[in-house]
Description:
Helix content is 38%, strand content 9%. 14% of the residues are buried. The termini are far apart. It has helices spanning 7-19, 22-27, 31-34, 91-109, and strands at residues 45-49, 69-73. A two-stranded parallel ribbon has the order 1-2. The protein has 110 residues and is mainly alpha-helical.
Amino acid sequence: xxxxxxxxxxxxxxxxxxxxxxxxxxxxxxxxxxxxxxxxxxxxxxxxxxxxxxxxxxxxxxxxxxxxxxxxxxxxxxxxxxxxxxxxxxxxxxxxxxxxxxxxxxxxxx
Length: 110
């Protein structure tokens, strides 16, 4: 198993630890960039490729507000869900794209 570590993410985690507290920084590294884990927005899909080092600064698990969700795509990189579909796409990527479309269709029908 290969582990990728982003130097910028390590720096941000360290800054969060200094500004807040170590436990909070480790559990919620997105707190500095997004304004916390209790995001007030609605109709949000968090698409996260686990090869993307930025996924640690995203929301990857719930509880979610109504109309919001996260898709985790192992073996996928930054914005891979936004590229045109290919036969070689992973099953998780295909499922995430289908799920994102379903969410958007619901939002547009409201």
